[in-house]
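Students often ask why inverse folding is considered easier than folding. One informal answer: many sequences map to the same fold, so there is more than one right answer. In these notes we will look at a single instance of the problem. The structure comes first.
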């Protein structure tokens, strides 16, 4: 039987905000404090239980770097950071929230277990038999993790060369990790069997492009449309759109940047992928704009000067053929 979404509880290295009614917490203020307050500038996660979904925000050094959503607690999808935060009402009558510090390895595994597919267990393996499960891991010299869900509590156990080496438990457990695994898997009388899943070693928690950078690129495109129009280009917005359309197949995230059909929803993308897509689009537009007397290098310098440090950090100038002097 599936575990209700609202019952899920994840491990914490330190509880910064215990699960609290959302009506008493302002999410944006909480995240702002996490960036400003040195003591709260930690790696961890914010979980928000809403009536229709569970939203998880992953933080590094107090900064939100990724987010997921789930309507049932079973299937999760990555979601744009701005979209995730925007779905949380500022004065919610229903819902709850927590803010927990967590180890990097737990965050890597937690995100991976939400967004990837687990490895299959052998059909003949009895997962409620802890000795047999641990013997299988040792025999296969597995490197990765196991996830155990028991009555809403989610536990992660890191496995190296088939041996449990670190445990991230939703409740307080110290001592022999293998013994805790066997205890969690043991039959609980009439209770539902724990859900046990096997994972390879997780990649590092991916970081999305920041909402600020995405907005900066939106503003840059809008400014470019205005510059083309003032330079005499006929229907500048359509000219920019014409350059975008052929690139959507190669860079699907550009679907969220149409100047003629604007959308406020951000793409889910890392900085390098986003910047590469926008750079190819800018290159096509600026070269087309030369026919209207728009000097590409001067135009780029003029339109990006106010945020050139942000664009430089994102690698925009390195992805374009012009070398600007500041």
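Output (designed amino acids):
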């Amino acid at each position: 039987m599936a575990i209700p979404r609202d019952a899920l509880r994840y491990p914490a290295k330190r509880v910064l905000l215990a699960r609290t009614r959302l009506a008493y917490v302002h999410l944006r203020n909480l995240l702002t404090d996490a960036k400003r307050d040195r003591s709260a500038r930690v790696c961890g996660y914010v979980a928000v239980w809403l009536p229709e979904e569970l939203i998880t925000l992953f933080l590094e050094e107090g900064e939100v770097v990724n987010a997921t959503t789930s309507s049932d607690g079973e299937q999760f999808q990555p979601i744009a950071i701005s979209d995730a935060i925007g779905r949380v009402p500022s004065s919610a009558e229903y819902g709850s929230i927590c803010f927990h510090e967590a180890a990097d390895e737990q965050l890597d595994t937690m995100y991976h277990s939400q967004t990837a597919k687990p490895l299959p267990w052998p059909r003949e393996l009895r997962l409620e038999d802890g000795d047999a499960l641990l013997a299988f891991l040792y025999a296969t010299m597995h490197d990765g993790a196991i996830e155990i869900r028991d009555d809403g509590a989610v536990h992660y156990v890191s496995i190296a060369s088939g041996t449990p080496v670190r445990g991230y438990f939703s409740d307080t457990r110290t001592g022999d990790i293998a013994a805790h695994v066997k205890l969690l898997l043991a039959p609980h009388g009439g209770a539902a069997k724990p859900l046990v899943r096997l994972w390879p070693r997780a990649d590092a928690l991916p970081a999305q492009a920041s909402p600020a950078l995405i907005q900066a690129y939106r503003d840059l495109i809008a400014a470019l449309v205005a510059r083309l129009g003032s330079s005499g280009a006929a229907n500048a917005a359509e000219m920019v759109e014409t350059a975008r359309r052929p690139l959507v197949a190669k860079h699907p995230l550009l679907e969220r940047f149409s100047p003629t059909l604007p959308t406020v929803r951000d793409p889910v993308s890392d900085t390098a992928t986003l910047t590469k897509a926008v750079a190819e689009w800018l290159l096509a537009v600026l070269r087309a704009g030369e026919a209207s007397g728009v000097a590409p290098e001067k135009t780029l310098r003029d339109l990006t000067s106010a945020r050139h440090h942000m664009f430089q950090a994102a690698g925009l100038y390195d992805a374009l053929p012009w070398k600007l002097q500041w």
